[in-house]
């Protein structure tokens, strides 16, 4: 075998392998420190082998400088990477371990720099055509010490990890790593021993070192492929898919389920073999009762930017569930696929509905009379102020029940309350569009009535609304209690420009009815009340 063929087999071919290993490990998951350190280990081996090739084939006259200032640091960096990788594979990440790893890198490199400063390159390396090692015994001892001790240190770290782990797959991976490192260590010892005895020449020892390292790299590659101790996106995705707390469906473009995770199966209460019977998109609908299936094609053609919705899920023999549904198309698949992610928000929606209902009740209580359900004084004032601010004309009718104290004294306060409810029901029943009825005191009611003085007579409008009160007596225990009232009417903005003034005018008109015999309606007019 000529020298060119030997260089190709022992130097260039391993360099290609190391380059491939470095790129593939880094590209697989560049965010992971294990991948980065493994990639750096392969790159340092690559540069070491390239240094050997440059030294022997291209610039033999600079052999000593290349060995001492290039090959030696690359070799020391390689074994430091090996220890670092072993620490990471063993799962050691404490701050003390990180300091330990830092010194693992610095110690051999500082030792080499110190030797170069003390002895100089000419005393540490003597180039020779062939024969024993060109390295001085001190330099050779340094190399053997660090290579051997670092390999043994890596073996010890992996051995501890093997003894402490409980995972069968991890144990197998660690024992294979241990076997590979021990084999490499034994090979280096044997070759170094034969070289020291001059049984083999320097060039042969280089070829043997390279061959052994290449075999170790190939075995490491097979180990990575088989046990995959470096993170795999496929396995990681599968783990996340299986353990996700949300229901995940993998659908084709027509909505047929191809895969689903355990949460999705439990949601539908079905086993794996029942998966083909699930029609997810037909089970989903929007809150306006539009079926998700009816809009499926629209979403497929990306006609909508919104890819997340709140929906109802209806499963046979189960209560309706509220869901947040998100949809994503898988880009680059040979056949179109869609991921449907469903998060159960039933309890949250129930809480939301309770809060909305509670808010509605609180607002109702804040603006309504608790006995009759009519607007209370604050609500009447607010509505009146809105009308006044808008310049909207209206009539205010103040109603005071006649003889209500007699009803209370004769029949009791409970009957009196029912009597007030009867009045309120009549006002609500005969109210017209735009009317607002309220109770502002014990037996005082108010009615805000839209009014256009150019088109209608205020008395006739008020009488048409209040006449049903007199025509519908209150009945209790086969007894009939007639309804009698006195009412005063004021107009905005003829009589006053604010609610206080309107109430005052209506009150004056109402008391005029009281003084005139009760059970009538009086309309205020420029300070004079007109009663009918």
From TrEMBL:
Coiled coil: none annotated. The chain crosses the membrane at residues 6-26, 33-54, 66-88, 100-119, 139-163, 175-200, 206-224. Residues 233-275 form the PAS domain. CDD domains: GGDEF (cd01949). InterPro entries: DGC-Regulatory_Protein, GGDEF_dom, Nucleotide_cyclase, PAS, PAS-like_dom_sf, PAS_fold, Rev_trsase/Diguanyl_cyclase. Residues 392-526 form the GGDEF domain. Its EC number is 2.7.7.65. The keyword Transmembrane applies. GO terms for molecular function: diguanylate cyclase activity. Keywords: Membrane, Nucleotidyltransferase, Transferase, Transmembrane, Transmembrane helix. This is Diguanylate cyclase.
